[in-house]
Design brief:
single chain, alpha/beta, Spore Coat Polysaccharide Biosynthesis Protein SpsA, Chain A, four-stranded mixed sheet, three-stranded mixed sheet, 8 helices, 17% strand
Amino acid sequence: MILDVFARPYSLLDVKTTANFEAIVMSYQNSRVSQELSAQLIFGARASAGKLPVSLGEGFPVGSGLQTSQIGRLQYGTPESVGVNSKTLTKIDSLVQVGFDEDMMPGAQILVARKGKVIYQKNFGYGDAIIEGINNCDTEYFCIFNADGSFDPSEINNMFISMQTRQLDFIFASRYQASSGSDDDTIITLVGNYIFTYIGKIFFKLNISDILYTFIIGKTEQANMLSLRQKDFSFCVELQIKAKKMKMKMGSINSYERMRIAGKKKVNAFKDGFLILASMIRLFFKKI
């Protein structure tokens, strides 16, 4: 086991024993850059030559430290560090967007490496955008809210109050409960949603009445425990199913979906429906 300390060196004085650690990495600060560089050092992409600037007792005197070498694994760097113009790589985003607009793919994960360095790594897709938002949320609660005008912001307060009153980890808006409805649903999406909601109730015992409607408020800490992975529209069922398997508390509340005022419906009923079904089958057999 390796202990990585993202704090000042003196914090090690609070550790009663280091006997169970094979090594200790002193990363000094808890930032994304420090986390990425420390990870590269641990798996051998970068060399280590640092020395302790202070004394931490007999076991770790000032100036102590281990020197390690690179072992030929990919490391991360800027495009310019390997002779590539950053502006050139931005064209990848445009090409992926064409793929989405033409329904060529539900999501994408692209990595570009040159001269031993990863210079571009990016995920694309509906689910990935939501997961990225949750991962970067620094508040106790998060809310998934579409920007097309179909969700009613006035419902957020009632959702939050209901969530706290019922002591839930997640609350899901529903278009199919009493006093609910939709101006944006079609007969195909209505039937599809009914089928997937029914599957969720039968095979996963989900008490959600509108499984594909992603107007959600949840606890950020609990969401991060789910290890969400789906980059496409199958994210809609991944969160609920994983939360159920981890015995988290969920509930629904009535909602009315308005006619969207911007954008267009990007869900392909048959293609995305197949992906969602395949995801539910995998999650049924997968242990959490």
